[in-house]
Every structure is written in structure tokens, then in C-alpha cells.
Design brief:
Keywords: Hydrolase. The protein has 230 residues and is an alpha/beta fold. Helices cover 47% and strands 15% of the residues.
Length: 230
């Protein structure tokens, strides 16, 4: 019997985000890619997800922005969640530096147009050991190019306002796990330390990994998925 996991990607990521991990998993788990709906707010995205996802309790997995979104969905519809894993996200508000970067990027694109993710930005999302792996950078570029300017603007606009969900997540009844890269530059070390000290959260740290966990450490992620969902 194959266990299905509904997977939401991060900003400017498509189904290729999961390919390495799916290949490693084999047939025991099926990662069902769910594109982020093209809506203007987190609330509107969650409403669309409520229409397209099964009503029976499901396994959910979210990466980066998708991690925040699956948490928002799970808090609104807890009865529809069997198990939830969040990758490269803490379900908290954006760091002030990241929000500022996103606002600058959004204003620039609205005025000048979108020319794709800069190579420096793509490399910065990878752990130190992976920055020179052209295959990973090429996938990041390819996903970004395929989604394009309209999706970039929509995803940045809709995710600028992110209420902190951590306190509410402490109360959920379904199994919840977070997995983060040891070198992720986008996550707050203070928030992670607080989560790891809490009895409410199961936080796994993946070594030699930056932000792009499914691409950088697919074998280790596959092990975590089997342990959590099977």
C-alpha cells in the first residue's frame, strides 16, 4: 500500500523540488505536488486549498513558504490533517531582514520587470558544501524560470504579512514535525532554539544543508519521511 503525502512547495518552486527525494523513497511513499494557489493573501490561499485537498484526514508536507501555508491550513482545518511535517520554515513571522528584502525585490520587479533569480541569491540558499553543485543551482534556476514574473509577484505579495503561528501550533492534536537545515540562512536561530527547548515541537536538524533541504539532502529527508509517515 502506497502512503500519499500532499506537498506544498516554497516560493518559485515546482514539482522538481521533490524529484530527488521521491527517487530515493521508491514506492512506499508518494509525494503529491500541490502548486501554491494564485491568490493575494494567505487566507485566500488556504480557502482554495480547502477546496482542492481531500476532506478526509491527509498527510501534509510543506517546504519554506509552503510550510507556513500547510500550518495555516492545519490550524483552520485540524480535523482534515493526519500528520504534518514542515521543512525549512518555523511557522513564525518573517525575519525583519527577509521582509525588507522581499519588499525591495517586489518594488524592483513592479518597476523594472523580473529577470529571474540572481545566481548569488540561488547559491546563498544552499549549504556551504552544496554552493558549487551546478545541478542544484540549475534546478533552482529552471523552477524559477518556469513559474515566471506573475507567480513571483503573487507569491511575494501574498506572503509579506505572516502572523506568527507557533503559539497556536503548540495546542494541535495531530503529529507535527519540523525539519531544518543546519546552515539555513533564512531561519531565526533564536526561534529555533525556543522551539527545540519546547516539549510541544519535534525539531529535526539536517547537517550539511542550507535552505533547500529536499534538493540538498534527499536521502536524509527520505529517511525522516519514512520514520514520520509510515
Amino acid at each position: 500500500m502506497v502512503t500519499k503525502i500532499y506537498c506544498l512547495p516554497g516560493t518559485m518552486c515546482d514539482e522538481r523540488l521533490w524529484s530527488f527525494t521521491q527517487n530515493t523513497l521508491g514506492e512506499s511513499l508518494h509525494l503529491q505536488h500541490v502548486p501554491i494557489p494564485m491568490e493575494e493573501t494567505i487566507e485566500a490561499i488556504v480557502d482554495v486549498l480547502a477546496e482542492i485537498l481531500p476532506e478526509s484526514p491527509i498527510n501534509l508536507l510543506g517546504f519554506s513558504m509552503g510550510g507556513y501555508l500547510v500550518c495555516a491550513f492545519a490550524l483552520k482545518y485540524p480535523e482534515r490533517v493526519k500528520r504534518l511535517m514542515v521543512l525549512s520554515n518555523t511557522a513564525s513571522g518573517l525575519l525583519a531582514t527577509e521582509q525588507q528584502q522581499r519588499e525591495v525585490a517586489l518594488n524592483w520587479v513592479l518597476k523594472q520587470g523580473y529577470n529571474g533569480i540572481p545566481k548569488k541569491k540561488a547559491a546563498a540558499m544552499l549549504g556551504q558544501a552544496n554552493k558549487d553543485k551546478s545541478e542544484l543551482v540549475d534546478i533552482i534556476f529552471a523552477m524559477d524560470k518556469a513559474l515566471g514574473e506573475a507567480v513571483f509577484i503573487q507569491q511575494l505579495k501574498s506572503s509579506l504579512v505572516r502572523p506568527d503561528q507557533l503559539l497556536i501550533l503548540e495546542e494541535v492534536k495531530f503529529p507535527l514535525c519540523f525539519a531544518v537545515g543546519s546552515e539555513d540562512p533564512l531561519l531565526s536561530s533564536a526561534v529555533l532554539a525556543k522551539m527545540k527547548s519546547s516539549k510541544c515541537f519535534d525539531v529535526k536538524t539536517v547537517d550539511n544543508c542550507g535552505h533547500m533541504l529536499p534538493l540538498e539532502q534527499p536521502a536524509l529527508l527520505a529517511d525522516l519521511l519514512k520514520e514520520f509517515y509510515l
